[in-house]
Amino acid sequence: MIFLETLDGNLFIICGAPGSGKTTAQAYLTENLGFTKVVTHTTRPKRQGERDGKDYYFETQETFFDNHYLEYVTYDDNYYGSSFEGLKRALKHDKRAVIVLDTKGVLTYLDKLPAELLTVIFLELPSTAVQVERLHARGDKKARIEQRLASKEAKRDAELPAALRAKAHVLQNAELQQTYAKLEQLVADILS
Ligand SMILES: Nc1nc2c(ncn2[C@@H]2O[C@H](COP(=O)(O)OP(=O)(O)O)[C@@H](O)[C@H]2O)c(=O)[nH]1
Ligand SMILES: Nc1ncnc2c1ncn2[C@@H]1O[C@H](COP(=O)(O)OP(=O)(O)O)[C@@H](O)[C@H]1O
User: Fold this and answer.
1) Which of 113, 111, 134, 139 lies closest to 38 in space, CA to CA?
2) What is the tens place of the pLDDT at every residue in 6-29?
3) How much is the pLDDT for 6?
4) Per-residue pLDDT tens digits for 125-150
5) pTM of the model
6) How far apart, in Å, are the Cα atoms of 145 and each of 2, 94, 135, 136?
7) Distance 100 CA to ligand 1 centre (A)
8) Residue 26 in contact with ligand 2 by CB distance below 6 A
9) Does residue 171 sit in helix, strand or coil?
10) Domains (ranges, CATH) in the chain?
């Protein structure tokens, strides 16, 4: 059993709509700013180029429940969950970790973990047209994009939920270098 009160350090949580740049922002934090990624678990099929244990732990409907979850959700008909072990491992490493969650998961984290541990970033897209363009550019097929954007979870996460307004730092992800600069500034503000 892992006790949540024994966790300390800084956990940055990134949320936002599909294609808002969550994975891109997370990679910037891990590759440039010394963060460790919390790898989460999912039953969704691997996208081209994704690797098991790096992008996600890819699970089947059967193996998904072999893990101990701090929380898990259904998103567009697949399970996604973050394990106690993964979180503890990432924070132990250098006490600066980053996780990508849907907004329901963010609310659970705010409920279960000490507030001083958490920084929440909500990424905003300039427009729906840009969102679709970026999902195409990532290699998602038209039918997949349509299904994903029609899901109730994607619709919910298109805008910052009211319950997160007081806590989330909203970052518009338009021009990428500017987004990176905003991330650097936020990290400097929080960690200094
Ligand atoms: N609550 C929760 N959400 C997760 C977890 N892992 C990923 N997600 C979220 O699941 C959603 C779908 O992720 P993904 O299939 O990678 O699609 P994407 O948003 O298009 O990159 C995103 O909002 C992720 O933030 C998790 O462990 N818990
Ligand atoms: N500011 C940006 N300008 C142009 N392309 C971007 C920008 N941010 C992210 N992308 C690209 O958009 C696609 C979706 O980004 P991704 O990080 O996978 O989003 P998410 O994880 O939120 O679904 C990727 O191909 C990524 O390289």
Assistant:
1) 113
2) 677 899 999 999 999 999 999 999
3) 66
4) 999 999 999 999 999 999 999 999 99
5) 0.96
6) 38, 36, 7, 8
7) 6
8) no
9) strand
10) 4-38+95-191 (3.40.50.300)
